[in-house]
Amino acid sequence: MFIRQWKEAIAQAEPCWFDIKAGVAKTIKLIEEASANGTALIAFSEVWLPEYLNVLWSGTYVENLQNVFNYRKNSITADGPEVISIRRATRENNIYVALGFSERVSGTLYLASMLIGANGDVLRHRRKIKPTHLERTLFSDSLNCWEHLQPLLKYNTWAQGEEVHIAMWPFNGPHLGAEPWSVCSDANELTMSRAYSIEACFRRGQQRNSVGHADTKGSFMHSGGGGCAAVFQPDGRQVTEPTDPEFDGILYCDIDLDQIDYAKATQKP
């Protein structure tokens, strides 16, 4: 019989900028903390390792050249020592881990995600099919972030009968007025996340890292903070308390899959 109730952890934390070694150490520390608090699963944000390179959305090619070089140097392989260390920590702490990372395959980078079982085995490994806009200047084509706007991609996951959906997002802040409202945190992480839960009638967790020292001028990707981790019930209700955008830590939530049946009883067969 499948387990229907458990405790989930959601990491809303600032990454270790351009320092993959420190990033892996922080990942393991958060895994250990979540396990010590009795959780069965901890989920991290989109490209948690090494971080989401927000300067792609604001700087010029010349300005970003050194950042891109450093980012590539800190990207990892799916079977490299960094992932092996995280898988070992997963096994030692008997916890499931959903990890977002920048995957390097030869000279190409991918926006990748991996689900690691409590025994340390890789249960799922995928790459974002089509990076969004300026992400394509760094990542190649490969359900991260704005893939939640693509109807056929969403239908594909629903058709597989999923009951818990882990959505990985990067950080971004509130609407500043210059960009379309659709790019701000209220539109992306909150509105789309809630709608996704209602459409499919299942539990949905979303993760976003936070930025404590971002430039607050100009782009929405430099508005400071940006963390917005949350869990939504199948009826669209947010069951975690709103967090400070600069909160650096873990949110916890009790999961009850029987809530899916209640939602489907009123919305769909």
Explain the overall architecture.
The protein is an alpha/beta fold. It has a single domain (5-267), classed as Carbon-nitrogen hydrolase (Nitrilase/N-carbamoyl-D-aminoacid amidohydrolase, 4-Layer Sandwich). Helix content is 28%, strand content 22%. Strands 5-4-3-2-1-9 form a six-stranded mixed sheet. The chain has a three-stranded mixed sheet with strand order 6-7-8, covered by helices on one side. Strand 6 (164-169), helix 5 (186-200) and strand 7 (203-208) form a beta-alpha-beta unit. Helix 1 runs parallel beside helix 3. The longest helix is centred in the first third of the chain and has 17 residues, at 20-36. 42% of the residues are buried. GO terms for molecular function: nitrilase activity. It holds the Pfam family CN_hydrolase. This is CN hydrolase domain-containing protein.
Helix run count: 6
Mean pLDDT: 80
Beta content: 15-25%
Question: What structural class is derived from the secondary structure elements?
Answer: alpha/beta
Could you say how many structural domains there are in total?
Answer: 1
**How is the biggest beta sheet arranged?**
6 strands, mixed
Domain CN hydrolase: 6-257
Pfam family, one: CN_hydrolase
Family: Belongs to the carbon-nitrogen hydrolase superfamily. Nitrilase family.
InterPro entries: C-N_Hydrolase, C-N_Hydrolase_sf, Nitrilases_CHs
